Amino acid sequence: MHAWPASEVPALPGEGRDLRIHDTATGGLVTLAPGPVARIYVCGITPYDATHMGHAATYNAFDLVQRVWLDTKRQVHYVQNVTDVDDPLLERAERDGIDWVALAEKETVLFREDMTALRMLPPQHYIGAVEAIPGIVPLVERLRDAGAAYELEGDVYFSVESDPHFGQVSHLDAAAMRLLSAERGGDPDRPGKKNPLDPMLWMAARAGEPSWDGASLGRGRPGWHIECVAIALDHLGMGFDVQGGGSDLAFPHHEMGASHAQALTGEFPMAKAYVHAGMVALDGEKMSKSKGNLVFVSKLRYDGIDPAAIRLALLAHHYRSDWEWTDQVLQDAVARLDAWRAAVSRPDGPSADALVEEIREALSNDLDAPAALAAVDRWAVLQGAQGGTDEGAPGVVSRAVDALLGVAL
Prior knowledge:
Elements: E1 19-23, E2 28-32, E3 37-42, H1 53-71, E4 75-82, H2 87-96, H3 100-117, E5 125-128, H4 129-145, E6 149-152, E7 155-158, H5 174-183, E8 200-204, E9 220-222, H6 224-235, E10 240-246, H7 250-265, E11 271-277, E12 280-282, E13 285-286, H8 297-302, H9 307-315, E14 323-324, H10 327-344, H11 353-364, H12 369-386, H13 393-405
Parallel strand pairs: 3-4, 3-10, 4-5, 10-11, 12-14
Antiparallel strand pairs: 1-2, 6-7, 7-8, 8-9, 12-13
Helix pairs in contact: 4-6, 6-7, 9-10, 10-12, 11-12, 11-13
């Protein structure tokens, strides 16, 4: 599976700062100091509907992580998956009377188009669950043979008790975990499981559903969490720098994935930081495909909204905050984009050297994009009020906003 084309990231004078970011596992800020190559895994979409603003906010956050790292002159090894076979996808395909493969391909193409328009930097490896199955099967077999997994009526479950570190990502109690497991794809009430929280690694073939050869596991398809583990271990190895996704993935997805990887390798932790983006709401409720209360990136684009304005609307909110999409949010972003473009269109202006450092400092402080936007706003106001004599300033601002915020002026 291929990703989308990369937009050029302008080089800036000087050097960026190491990133301090909130780690869900420790509950506080950690300073990430990767080696020459920073490693990040971000969980991708289940492609049964178009990219909504909640998706866009999540991928925008981890795009900023990449840009901060690139500004420190590091390379970035970014991996993202596509869950191109899963119950929600199969259910939507059946509802709409469309082949599930065709639905997944259609929505993945649209996702790529949205990411390109929003200038999200692409992953080096963009891997579908289906293409990862040959690497998933041996991992499930290893867990089973090591006693970390067991069979139940042909299905294979992971035993959470096999990982002494289970629970150290989300830090939830058993009751909260059980509730979230039931809400987010688990089956805690299935009789015969050793622990209600045990997640499925391999689902035996069901009539009318797709399945693949699982060697000694029999025909079936992989569980949700082991998919990401197989892809991450294959391309990044253990101890990579950031595991990212929306806050609704902290449990069960990232908790279970960490335990799978730790049981497989005997190493801890799977990732140095677990970073989670907040949820975006519409009309008072979290945007979700199940509720249908969605604002689609593609619909805004087709309506003539500049993707740079969409990106500014995302950047106006701290990545960890939960916030609500409104018409006013978009109007404010359009007005900001117009003001910035007017400011950099002049032949000279106030010096921008301090501004570049303000943006760097804001982003290195837990991706404080709103503070970065406020700094650019101040420069634009000063430019409009009195101008300046630095002929290079507008170009410096334009390049800095592009390189660090992903907004093309």
